[in-house]
Please model this.
Amino acid sequence: MNSYVTRQREALKDYLRSLAGEHVNAEDIVGHFAAIGEPIGRATVYRCLSMLEREGCVQRYVTGTHKASCFQYIDAPEETHEHFHLQCERCGTLQHVECHTLSDMERHIRQSHGFDVNPLRTVLYGVCHDCGQAGMKGKN
Amino acid sequence: MNSYVTRQREALKDYLRSLAGEHVNAEDIVGHFAAIGEPIGRATVYRCLSMLEREGCVQRYVTGTHKASCFQYIDAPEETHEHFHLQCERCGTLQHVECHTLSDMERHIRQSHGFDVNPLRTVLYGVCHDCGQAGMKGKN
DNA sequence: TTGCGTGCAAAGGTTTTGCATGGCA
DNA sequence: TGCCATGCAAAACCTTTGCACGCAA
Model:
């Protein structure tokens, strides 16, 4: 199981780490490595991402219809336990939130509804502050 | 704009309404109408759903990678305000939750983080009670 | 040497689009 | 009659899979 260390896998991890919490999709990654002259095949990118996801080093989100998944590196899985994602439906901005209210909610759902929420995977959709200001009356 | 009333469009709306908050995907819808001998083409289903979504009668959410979107009729948008979705990452079951804790969280995120959560769109991922019991030690 | 990892191309599944036909107003 | 909606098939899109070759250990 996952015993080999390869150029591609290390390069991919380094790249994701270098983004420091920014998210990318598979196409971006393929493009990046093609651009720097060290191409990595799509299949490999997907396979590595899946592996990293299984290991807990990478989080994958689905952010919309017919759109690519996004991936993001997770440095310290334990620290991100209370960390949720908020994505704006209008501008697409993804922000992180660490907040006791969310931990409370998580605990409540586990205890009262028997459901163990995975914050890493979960994205709360809505409208961010900026877009809310901008579109006060237009409401799309 | 959207001026015509057609058999297909009415049938689709009636069907979605009859589900009373249950969710379906496009394939289910196509299958349903084929089964009752009143088939509706896939393209039409997608086009109608998009139109209804634009009108605000239908909510679409994405529930996983490489999986179909789900659609749900919205009768009274206000009433569903407190209603969230929980999806199990293992068995795929989608359940609805209406709970003050979630409303509290929503309010908190709006007030303290300036982000207006859209519960209709949001899916909380995690592990449901049954799968949690079943996979206590095996973790899949 | 062993066997996992890689890369290409093809397959798989979901959603959109082009175009001719049919139906609403 | 005018124009929108429908339906089929093909295209577009993202992701996975099969297979032969390459490379880490």
